[in-house]
Amino acid sequence: MTERGVLICDAHELMRAGLRGLVDGQPDLAVVGEAGDGETAVAQALTLRPDLVLMEARLPCLDGISATTRLRAELPDTRVLVLTACDRDEYAYAALRAGASGFLVKDAPAAEMLVAVRGVLRGETMLAPSVARRLVDRYVTGAVAPLADARLDTLTGREREVLGLVGRGLNNVEIAEKLFLGETTVKTHVGRILTKLRLRDRIQAVVVAYESGLVRPGG
Question: Average pLDDT of the chain?
Fold first, then answer.
């Protein structure tokens, strides 16, 4: 079994020790490094190139959200799971916008933490249950009015259609089947969407799709 490398970034030594014990206790995971502040986290990641970074939201020197932004720009294949002591919505939304693949509270049970870690490594977006519920309330139920986003005007009709399906969680194969397109064509559309909207990955595209109102209840 191939081990996936994990970098732990937390300001508190006891928390790092707990996470290290959890990760190293798994046959498919291994801690490759640790950091206590954001600047060190970025430097360590650039050197170690881990598969996953467990990133505390509130770090000294450079906060976890800013560190995530830098990491995702430099290491697009490295995934980030942001951890926080509280599930405040602004942290969750900021983490997703920064390119994180998940957001979890630190006191989550070990089993939930491992599910999130493995989900992120599979390419999924993992959110703390409480945050996920509020995200649904905020965007899916229409509790918040959509924000005008002029960047969407740069998209063709087909690209807007593809973005809407990305926002609904469909992968390239599913989009291809739904629109009767080739998978390579869909991949090309997604790449152009990310470039035109100046986004790093599909996670940020999902956020834009909801915030702009492109994906709405019953859509």
Answer: 85
